[in-house]
Amino acid sequence: MYLALTLIIVLGAMVIQTSIFPLVFLTIKPDLLLVIVVYLGLRKGPEIGCLSGFAFGLMQDASSEIAFGANAFAKTILGFLSGVAGKQLYTQSVITHMLCVGFSTVAGELILLGLQGFQSDWQRLLLYETCYNMLCCPFIVGIFRGGEKRLGI
């Protein structure tokens, strides 16, 4: 049942990220799939973080214009690192999740920028996307926790 819950949340996030966010945000958009990968890594460990990072990164690669596999590569690394960090951190706190999402956003963007070349305004991109992801984090965590509570997990 947890897999079904995760897939529903991911598909919803993908729809929002690809159809609604482009209408609301002009150039810089939150990366909801990264927030989900970090959550799963922190809560379920490095294996699930790594697997979800790869799968969700490939989904994101299919709908983006950057090199195929770049998002999968970055999210796989970030999912694994989140899982390793989750063993050392208190993961019940939303603040912990927000800080990990912030660090993961910076690291992920630096990986992607390193793969495709730095743009002229990469600092602005990094700052705004980090803020957007950290602001979206409590909502994603709340949705997951509500689903986990409903499932009795």
From TrEMBL:
The chain crosses the membrane at residues 66-86, 98-119, 125-144. Belongs to the MreD family. It comes from Candidatus Moduliflexus flocculans. It is found in: Cell membrane. GO terms for cellular component: plasma membrane. Pfam families: MreD. It is a multi-pass membrane protein. Its main location: membrane. This is Rod shape-determining protein MreD. Keywords: Cell membrane, Cell shape, Membrane, Transmembrane, Transmembrane helix. It comes from the Bacteria. GO terms for biological process: regulation of cell shape.
